[in-house]
Amino acid sequence: MSVNQQAHTGPPYGQPQPGYQGYQQPAYGGPSLPGVPQSQYGAYNGPMPGYQQPVPPQGYFPSLGFPSKGSPVSLNSDTSSLAPNFIGSLRAPPTSGAPPPASGASHPSGHLAYSQFEHGDVQNGIPASAAPMQRPPASQPFLPGSAPTPVSQISTFQQYGPPPASVQQLRNHMAGMTIGSTAASAPPPAGLGYVSGSFSATGSGLHTPYSASQGAPPATVSEGLPLTQPPFPGHTVSTQRLPTQVPGFTPPPPSTGVGPSSYPPTTAAPRPPAMPGPPLPGQTVAGPPSSQPNHVSSPPPSTMAGLHPGPPMSGLHGPPPPTHPPQPGYPMQQNGSFGQMRGPQPNYGGAYPGAPNYGSPPGPPPPPKRLDPDSIPSPQLNELPPQQKPRHRIDPDAIPSPIQVIEDDRNNRGSEPFVTGVRGQVPPLVTTNFLVKDQGNASPRYIRCTSYNIPCTSDMAKQSQVPLAAVIKPLATLPPEETLPYLVDHGESGPVRCNRCKAYMCPFMQFIEGGRRFQCCFCSCVTEVPPHYFQHLDHTGKRVDFYDRPELSLGSYEFLATVDYCKNNKFPSPPAFIFMIDVSYNAVKSGLVRLICEELKSLLDYLPREGNMEESAIRVGFVTYNKVLHFYNVKSSLAQPQMMVVSDVADMFVPLLDGFLVNVNESRTVIASLLDQIPEMFADTRETETVFAPVIQAGLEALKAAECAGKLFIFHTSLPIAEAPGKLKNRDDRKLINTDKEKTLFQPQTSFYNNLAKDCVAQGCCVDLFLFPNQYLDVATLGVVPYQTGGSIYKYAYFQLETDQYRFLNDLRRDVQKEVGFDAVMRVRTSTGIRATDFFGAFYMSNTTDVEMAGLDCDKTITVEFKHDDKLSEDSGALLQCALLYTSCAGQRRLRIHNLSLNCCTQLADLYRNCETDTLINYLAKYAYRGVLSSPVKTVRDSLINQCAQILACYRKNCASPSSAGQLILPECMKLLPVYLNCVLKSDVLQPGPEVTTDDRAYIRQLVTSMDVAETNVFFYPRLLPLTKADVDSDSLPAAIRNSEERLSKGDIYLLENGLNVFVWVGVSVQQSLIQNLFGVSSFSQISNALSTLPVLENPFSKKVRSIVDMLQGQRSRYMKLIIVKQEDKLEMLFKHFLVEDKSLSGGASYVDFLCHMHKEIRQLLS
Amino acid sequence: MATYLEFIQQNEERDGVRFSWNVWPSSRLEATRMVVPLACLLTPLKERLDLPPVQYEPVLCSRPTCKAVLNPLCQVDYRAKLWACNFCFQRNQFPPAYAGISEVNQPAELMPQFSTIEYIVQRGPQTPLIFLYVVDICLEEEDLQALKESLQMSLSLLPPDALVGLITFGRMVQVHELSCEGISKSYVFRGTKDLTAKQIQDMLGLSRPAVPMQQGRPLQTPEQHIISSRFLQPVHKIDMNLTDLLGELQRDPWPVTQGKRPLRSTGVALSIAVGLLEGTFPNTGARIMLFTGGPPTQGPGMVVGDELKTPIRSWHDIEKDNARFMKKATKHYETLANRSAANGHCIDIYACALDQTGLLEMKCCANLTGGHMVMGDSFNTSLFKQTFQRVFSKGYNGEFRMAFGANLDVKTSRELKIAGAIGPCTSLNAKGPCVSENELGIGGTSQWKICSLDPSTTLAIYFEVVNQHNAPIPQGGRGAVQFVTQYQHSSTQRRIRVTTIARNWADAQTQLQHIEAAFDQEAAAVLMARLGVYRAESEEGPDVLRWLDRQLIRLCQKFGQYNKDDPNSFRLSESFSLYPQFIFHLRRSPFLQVFNNSPDESSYYRHHFARQDLTQSLIMIQPILYAYSFHGPPEPVLLDSSSILPDRILLMDTFFQIVIYLGETIAQWQKAGYQDMPEYENFKHLLQAPLDDAQEILQTRFPMPRYIHTEHGGSQARFLLSKVNPSQTHNNLYAWGQESGAPVLTDDVSLQVFMDHLKKLAVSSAS
């Protein structure tokens, strides 16, 4: 695409274009917001940007482009309080505010604004180089673009800050959008009018983007890169102000914009120079932002306010003050960054077309061309092709925003309980807090599907390429308001089941012949109702006891299993927990051993209990090891524990039976004594070598000997190089990355552990592994057993007592206490027509249907893929029944059943309307992460992109209303697919940065494989919260913002969490008082980034932040590592890695770039 | 010197030596015609109240191949300060310390009464005694408890600085670390896996890293102590610890299902014990004390499977070659025994169980290393308890009656060569000029290792006269033998005991009567018995008996006085008169007869027979029978069924058993309660007398004999009836009338029949 485009546009646009091109499309895509949400989005965007902008405003804003959105928001804010803060500068803007109208003229097309900026740039930058030149042209195009849009200033606003557009656009869009939203149809019209405006407006959320892009292309020209885009928007906004105010100003913004984004390359040279100049203006610029707000406000004020009064306001407030001061600094940075940027540019080019564009001006031009033709704006293009192109970047605020989608869902669906009575209902998003009422289908907390409408035929399914998968979390924890599955006892004969397919009694079974028989809803076989289960039917054919029996009225319930469901036809004994502690030199020296022993003393009182049992039935055992293993006899009758050393690691066995596994209460004193003595005994150890496989074998043998299932908690520190089975060698080789052999890094070194895992599963021996490596220890191999036995791995690299103990202890506590089932077998039955064909997760399979897990806890998730083996009918729909046979923590054998009914469709549109992107991403990520075991990573990435392109192309082709090919049209339900997919592609496993170790990758790979939808969601698209915007008085979270550096204000503090880490990012210009309140130090420079927790300070802000952190920690199955990142600090690189909408250092594309790329792919498929 | 009897007795008391012949035939040919080989029973550490050890080094002959010790038989030139070795005739200079020597100022070793002398020498570091308990925990609760108590008690009997270690075994083998505070720590090994010494030492962390070796030797010693101290600790330091540890010993917790034997890893446990000592204290006196309550049922050295329905091998199975584990197990234990012996460690076996425990397979462990072998029914019996206690008994001088790591070197004058030794020893393979090519017993060497010995440990040493018939020895020439025993005294001193004896040569053709008179038939019987038993270990029982018979017949032919083919004319001189009777009882003894004995019992009996001194050995061959009656004081009576009379109480000592047998009438009286009546106090005394005497025997005997109190018709009377000469049986009962004795229901021949046959064969001209 890009190349072609470049070619096309190249000439006209000139240098600028390249960059733009890349952006254009994506940008457009971006801008277009889903129809419905659009309005909101617009609004949101506005606010959002606003927030961010505030920071940037000064120097950055413009460049960042945030301004655009921000402006709208800011408007509101301005009205309220922003002004005060900004005051000086702001006021200037206000004056500029006046300009708006004038700009308004320019506004017509957002382009105009851009153009202005560019011009400004040019002026400023003129000296710089071609870059500036380009811009001007771009701006010109915009103008034209805008012209078309004529609609009004509003439109222009819209363009700019699609956000601003929000207000007006909203309305317009709303109309069009709504229409378009579902189908592309609406967009087209909008396209015209909008086009210009459309960028932002984007007829239908997604669709429009395209059109916009197309149209935009001209304008957008190049969105060059998302980064650039942002600037633009910002510019636009600023432009408004600027225009009036000072040309000089304009330059700064662009420069800044460039800086942050990819601009640097093209403009880089020129701009930097400009920068210096700009800085001054920059300050003034700061003004502009404020002005922007004003502007924005002025146009949409009413609406805006209505929409997002709250957020914007706050956002503004925060940012403004800081912004001013920082400005100067920023520019500087930008400069620096520019320089750097140049370097990188080439790289970018490689990564994405967009990038190259930046690097090489010529590239860009071509793209525009294409765009032009497609897009309505063509005329505009004609008018001002050069300008537009260069300018056109897709407005990041205009492309589908995860934040917006999440927020909308939360608002729309969070209030009502989700009642599961209806077939094929799409549940609220995982990010939405909602209640579930089980009325016959399993709660989405247990099962989520990629689509709740399944194509009737395999042809359809193939055509759409939408994977049909269910993400099942059989033992999910429910919120306290929801009831746990009821336990049903069908007596000695066991649960009532279909004779043929063995499906369990469920609400979908059809009773016939007066209730004497029932017909299986899965296989249609008719089975006699056992006499003891007989019940009459009422006039509707329902059993009279329908509501008395959970298995007839609920989607999820449990059966008490009979002895037939037990191993060896014997009821199981209560399970056991065995703690196996590495006591080699490293572990002892780091204080780990002492820590674990101390913790266990109290933790043992919190072993999982069943229901209301007085004490846990779980028995415990202890092993320590280095090169040899030490077992402990802690029988209650002993005065002192006894230690038994087994050095025969080649042939592991358990040296004792009686006294190894004991009841905690009975042996309390002996255990306490043991835990006291372990650290002492090994205090002087000099043993550095460890074994590993024998440790697992030992646990396995112990459980075998005790004839029970159980869990091993292994605390391990190093690569097991001691002479023993399962001995490993250091095979870490970064040179393998990006080669065909890369997959070996994910594969175990030896098959030994696979066999061991198999044995473990057979015995119900689950392994949880806590790793404390100081160097490579081959997680890929060590993780095999935990992984295949349904266990968890926790990794604390470079474990340090002071900083990591809290996290480790929390993980340990949670891991020990969490609800868990043992010796589990899960089977998923489906109605005739589809079949579970593939399974992803932490388990072992000895055949093709049964998922076996030695242990299964409440956080473990299994993703199941279905394939057609026949036709489905729309009438009967499709049913899933997931049956999990497991042993509870008290040793009771049970069956947990989850039923889910889905619709079937013959129209692809129905399929696309009922998809869930989060689940889809969960599936795709797991699929890809498994793929890296067998294929080169590049192949995996390509196939992912390809599949998604096919999905979207299929939609475009079959469901979207006709529109120009240049338009990117995304199904409403999947509009986030590109951004999320990009996050998956950029993840450490698929695209490792230089700082990511092999172990990290293997670790994450295994971690993701067991994640549920909520976890993958936040893992791939981290949550970014502006802490300074938090309302100290309420317990709500501040509104999240998008993961892009552009959204960060250096006057604010942000929190970013992805389920593994929590970052607290502190801008350089944060008010001292905030720093004082939060960190207890008086200045930015005194903040220590060695902190692992936030200091406990008695002030509202500190409390609020800590409560937010605690709340987030509470939502995750693992305790997240808290990392304090100071802006411009070394650690910031790490932090930036998680700003997933930006380009990543490892070559990952920015959101906008990727959107362009996807668009290109789709167009190729369509053509 | 009055009689040879006195001479023999005196010699035995002074030197602990009894020769079969006290006047030696001077030619090889003659010697072989004497039938009973020239041999001696040597009790190397015979207790001598009057023998204070000297505190200096012995003076050795300077000839490298000789190195005999200066002794009273040497020719000394006081003026030249020279002495001539009486074995190789090398002339040696006295060492400087002997400068003041003169005819009136002689060192002890030159005085005739010091034909046996003991030196205390300072060699190498003194290491404390080491006791390593290897304890079976697959026992009944009661047994285990008793055993634990015995072991705890034993701690108080050990010298305080002795090192002690503990290994327990059942399904697993645990080596207990004793140095730790608080928590008791043990190393556990799987009971099924045979480990090499290297592996064991690695796993116990005993192997020394290579680095310290390079740093030089000084470091090595302390380090070795540190390492070994984990498992072997001075008693005084860990007395309390170990007592607690023993107290907390649990029965093997592994479930034993119905119909199965507990899994007992004796083989591995021993292997680890040996490996442990080998790695820590090679060539130091150490005792591995194995306490086992059943047969090894798994792993190397297993003797029987764990299925109860398969009984442990019997002699019948062995004869049928039906004992599947025997050979492998035996090999395993032999390997261990040899390793242990090579390091100077001994292995005791205390086996207490009602059924067999695999002594047959394990016997070599005790036999080759000089360890004790004790067999009992249960650890909860006084038999075991007292026996075990007696292991730690002390001699008259307050020293333990045990010594370690002895090295017995035998030197002979030129006319003699050494054919071999039989006893609790192993060959050191010291070839020399005085080693004969013909082997009797453990031969091919002039030196043996006796890892453990006590004052009664007795070896049989066989010689061969090599002097040719045509090289007569000058009149008055004497043959000499020197026994040099270097050992570690229980006080950890290294000592050397040197015994030098000399006997006259006699020409058998001309002086046969001298030789005949100097025949020690007791010693000869024991020496022949040892040979027989030794052969029985490897040959078929009947073959051995036939060999024994032939030897006896030949002896009678040689020394009997008779007319050809006239049995009635047959007479043996006094010095031979008892010999046939000994052989008769030997033939019936459990040492050669396996009938009615389990393989374990046979091994047990043979073990003790091969190490006890002459008196005890004779008791074993021909039990002693005392009679108590109102007719007179207690008197020894014939070991004959005719001695069993109704009005007698019999006390029989077979070494392994003490049987008190009440005659029919006595038993009735006792039942009637006469002993409780004041007027029959004499009866009470009569009943008490044998008990007291039995007690006396019980007090001194090691191992404790089985004490049996029975009466006429009692089931246990079989112990008596099986020993006595069946002069009256159901076959001849009526012919002999009811006058005397009780009939024994047996088809065995009686002594009378035996003698008749012997005479007939001896006088037969056909043979």
TrEMBL record, chain B:
GO molecular function annotation: GTPase activator activity; zinc ion binding
Function summary: Component of the coat protein complex II (COPII) which promotes the formation of transport vesicles from the endoplasmic reticulum (ER). The coat has two main functions, the physical deformation of the endoplasmic reticulum membrane into vesicles and the selection of cargo molecules for their transport to the Golgi complex.
Family the UniProt entry places it in: Belongs to the SEC23/SEC24 family. SEC23 subfamily.
Keywords assigned: Cytoplasm, Cytoplasmic vesicle, Endoplasmic reticulum, ER-Golgi transport, Membrane, Metal-binding, Protein transport, Transport, Zinc
Encoding gene per record: Sec23a_0
Domain of life of the organism encoding this protein: Eukaryota
Keyword Magnesium recorded: no
Every Gelsolin-like domain range: 634-720
UniProt protein name: Protein transport protein SEC23
Boundaries of every Sec23/Sec24 trunk domain copy: 127-392
Residue span, Sec23/Sec24 beta-sandwich domain: 403-506
InterPro entries in the cross-refs: ADF-H/Gelsolin-like_dom_sf, Beta-sandwich_Sec23_24, Gelsolin-like_dom, Gelsolin-like_dom_sf, Sec23, Sec23/24_helical_dom, Sec23/24_helical_dom_sf, Sec23/24_trunk_dom
Domain Sec23/Sec24 helical, first and last residues per copy: 520-618
Keyword ATP-binding part of the UniProt annotation: no
Subcellular location: Cytoplasmic vesicle, COPII-coated vesicle membrane; Endoplasmic reticulum membrane; Cytoplasm, Cytosol
Annotated Zinc finger Sec23/Sec24-type domain residues: 58-98
